[in-house]
Amino acid sequence: MLPILITLLGAIAATLLGFFLPRRAITVISMVTLVLSGVSMVTLWNGGLTSFNGSLQADNVALSIGLIILLGSLMTLLVSFDTAARAKLAFPEFDALLLYAVTGTLLIAFSGDLVTMLIGLEVMSLSGYVIATLQNSRRAEEAGMKYFLLGAVGSATLIYGIALVYGATGTFSYVGIRDATAGLQVENISLLVVGALLLLCGFGFKVALAPFHQWTPDLYSGAPTVVGLFLSTVVKVAAFAGMLRVFGGAMQNVPAWASVMQILIIATIVIGNLGALFQTNFKRLMAYSAVAHTGFLALALLANPATGGPALTYYLLVYTLMTAGAFAVLAALQRTEEGFSLDDMRGLFYRHPAYAVALAVCLASLAGLPPFAGFMGKYLAFQAAFQAGYVGLTLIAAMGSVAALIYYLRPAMLMFMHDRTPAREYPGERTPTTAAVVLGVVGVTVLGVLPNLAYGLVANPAIWTVLAGR
Amino acid sequence: MIHFFIFLPVLASLLIFLVPVRWREEFAGAAAGLTLAGGLWSWSVGGLSYYSVPWIPALGVTYSVQMDGVSLLLGIVTAFMTLIAIIYAGKRIPNPGTMLSLILMMETGLLGIYAARDLVLFYVFFEDALIPALLMLAIYGKANRMAALVKFAAYTLFGSLLMLISIIGLKYYGGSPTFALVDLQAHPVTGTLQTWLFLGFLAAMAVKLPLFPMHAWLPDFHAQNHDSGVADVMGTLYKVGAYGLFRFAVVLFPDAMLELRPILMGLAAFTALYAAWIAFSQTDWKRLLAYAGLSHMGFVGLGIFSMNETAMIGALFLLAFQNIYTGALFLAAGMLQERVGSLSTKVGGIMTQAGALSGMTMTLWFASIGVPGLVGFVGEFSILLGAYQVSPWLAFIAGLTTIAAAAYGLTAFQTTYWQVRPAGAVLAHDLRDLDWLILGAPIAVSIFFGVYSGPALALVQPVVRTWMAGLGGGL
Prior knowledge:
The complex is a heterodimer of chains A (470) and B (475).
Chain A: H1 2-17, H2 23-44, E1 49-51, E2 56-58, H3 60-86, H4 92-110, H5 114-133, H6 138-169, H7 174-182, H8 189-207, H9 215-222, H10 225-250, H11 257-277, H12 282-302, H13 305-333, H14 348-351, H15 353-367, H16 373-387, H17 391-414, H18 431-449, H19 452-458
Antiparallel strand pairs in A: 1-2
Chain B: H1 2-15, H2 24-44, E1 48-56, E2 61-67, H3 69-92, H4 97-115, H5 119-128, H6 130-140, H7 145-174, H8 181-186, H9 192-208, H10 217-224, H11 230-237, H12 241-252, H13 254-259, H14 261-280, H15 285-305, H16 309-340, H17 350-353, H18 355-368, H19 375-390, H20 392-417, H21 434-451, H22 454-469
Antiparallel strand pairs in B: 1-2
C-alpha cells in the first residue's frame, strides 16, 4: 500500500514543513511525492497485491486509475506554481490539502470494500470543500458552500445506501457483495435494490450526473481556476473509479440500477450539452462540458466490464489530459479568476499563438475530432455501450456530441478570427503552466494517433473480471 | 511509397512553420508538386498495392491503405488541384503561411479518405479533412462566417456520428474480426439491420455529397469563404460522399441500396434540378458556383445510386473532373474579384478589358455545362446513359438539368463578361504571369480528357467492374 502511504506522508510533510519553508518548496516536495507514488505504482503492476484482508487491492485496474489520478494532480500542481499567488491561494496548506485529497482519491481507486471506499470519498470530499473555499473571495465561498451542502447530501445518501446494502447482504466487501448477489439469492431483494439506487444517487452527486449536477457550474466557475482543474479531473476520475468498483464489480447483477442509470445518462447528456450551448463564460462552458462528459463516461459503466472497463479508463486518461490542458491555458491567460468571456477569446491566436493552438487542440479533442485522443475515448465509450445493446442510448449520445461540437467550436474558431482590440490577457511567461499545457497537448495527440500505447495496457479483459476482487 | 504519398503534405504543413517566411510559398509548392509527382508515378506503375497493419489490435482497427484506379484518379486530381490552389494562394494572399499549411493538411485528409480500406481509418481521415476546412473558414472567411461555420460543422458531424455508430454496428452484428474492408465484406450484415446501418452511413455521405435535405451548409460555406477562391477549391475537393458510397456502401450494403434505389435516385435527380433552378437566380459568383457544384453532385449521386455499371463509372469520372473545372472556376471568380472588387454577376463588360480571363472562364463554363469535347460531357453522358437503363423518367428529369445549367451558366457569364462596361468602372487588367498557368492547366486537363478520356476511364472501369461483379450481377 506504498503508493497511498507515500502521498499521505507527502501530505503530512507539506502540513508540517509549511511552517518553515516557502510555498514553492512545498510544491516541489509535493510533486516529488506524486512522482514517487507513481513509480511505486508502476512497480506493483501485474502484482495483484492485496492488504488488510482485501480492503485494499492493488490490481491493475486500481493502478491504472491511480496513475491517471496522479497525472491530474501533477498537472494541477504545475499550474498552481504560477497561478496560485495570483489566485490568492499561495499558502502551503493548499498543497497539503491537495495531497490529502489525492490520498483519498487513491483510497477509492484501491478500495476493496464499501467502507474503505467511503473513507476515501470523505477524505477527498472534505479536502475538496476546503480547497474550493480557500481563496478569500465571496465567489469562492459561495461555490464552496454549494459544493459542501450538496456534497454532504450526496455523502449522506451514499452512507444510507451502503447501510442498506449491508443489511441485504451482510457484508461490506465487494467480493462478498458480488457473491451474495451472484445468483440473486439475497434475503431481502428490495432492500438491496433500494440500497443500490441510493448508492447510485450518492455517486451521481459526486460525478455530477444530472439531475445531481447543479453544483458543478457554480463550483467550477466560482472556485479558482486551478481548483476547478483539480475538481473536474482528479475528483471526477476517483468518483468514477468508485462507481466502476461498485457497479461494474460488486453489484453488477443487482437489478434496476442499470435502467435508472440509463435515464440519468440521457438526462446528463441532454442537460449538460444544452446547458453548455448557452454559456458566455468559458469557465462555465467547461463546467457544463464536464457534466456532458460525465454522461459519455457513464456510458462505459453500463457496458460489460470487459469492454466498458478499458474504455472508461482510456477515456478518463484522455479526459484528464484534455480538460487539464484547457484549464491550464485558461489559468495562464486569464486576467481574473472569473476566466474569459467568449468574446475575450477573439483573436487570441494572433496574441498568443502557441497557447491558442494548444487550447484549440484540447477543444478539438473534447469535441471528439480525430486525430486527437478525445475521438478514441468517445468512440470506445460508444462502442462499449453499443455492444451492450444500448443502441438508442448511443444514438442520443451521438446527437449530444453534435451539440458539443458547436459549443467547443465557437471558442476554438473565435480564437482564429482577426481582432483589433488590445489584448485582454495576463501577460508574461509561465513556464510550469506551459509544461502542463504541453503535457496535455502532447498526450492528447500521441494517444490519439497511437491509442494502443495506453489502451493496450488495459485492454486485457482478464484484469476486468476481478473488479470486485478475488 | 503509399505512406509517402498520403503523409507528405501533412508533414510539409507542419514543417512550413520552420521555413523562413519568404521561402514558404516555394516550400509548399515543392511539397504539393512532389505529392503530385508521387501520384503520377503511382499511375505509371499501375496503382499502389494493399498494405495493412494492426493499428489498435485490441479493437480490431487496422491501418489498411491502397491506391487502386478509382482512388488513384481522385488522388491525382486532388494533388493537382492542391498544387494549383497553392500557387494561387502564394500569389494572391499576403503572408500565406497559415493558409498553405491548412491546404496541405487538408490534402493529406483527402488522400487518406481515398486510400483508406478500413472503416475507422476512413472515419479518421474523413474528420481530419474537416479541421483545416473549418480553420480556413474561421481565419480567412467573411463577416458572417461564424454562422456558416457552425452550420457546416453541425451538418457534417451530425452525419458522421451516425456513420460512426453504423460502423460499430457493422462490425458487431456482422461478427467481423477487424474493421478492414475485406473482413467486413466477408462477414456481411443482412436484412433489415443492413438497411438501418446503411441509413446511418448514408447520413454522413449525403451531407458530403450533398443530397437534397442535407445541402443547406454548402452555399453559405462557399459564400463566406475567402474571396480568392482557394478555400473553395479545397471545399470542392471535399465532396467525397459519392466516393464513400461507392467504396463502402455498394459492397457492404448492397441489398439496402437496391431497396432504396428509387427513393435515392429520385432525391439525387431532384437535387440536380433544384440546385440548377436556384443557381439561376443567384447574383453572387460564389453562390452560383456552389449551387452549380451541388447540381453536379446530384448527377454524381444519380450515377452511384443507380447501381448500374456505366452510370457508376460516369459518376466517379464526373466526381473527379468536376473538381478540376469547378475548382478552376472558383479561382477565376477570385481573379474577377481581385480585379473589380466584387463577386457580383452583374459587373458587365469584362471581356473588353480582360479577354484572356473571360475566354478561359468561358471554356471552363463549357466544361461545366457538359459541352462535348470537354471533360464534363463524358461524365454526364455516361451517367444519363446508365441511369436511363434503370429509370428512364428520372434520367429525363436529371437530363433537364444540363439545359438548366447552360441557362444559368451562360446568363451569368453574359451579364458579367459581355454587355457594356459601366462608365467610370475600374480598369480590369488581364491575366498576368502565373494566372495563365492557374487557369490554363485545368483547361488543358479538361480538354485532354474530354477528347481522350481513355486513360482516365481505364483507371475507373476495372475497379467498378470488380465491385459490381462482387454483387453477383443481375443488377
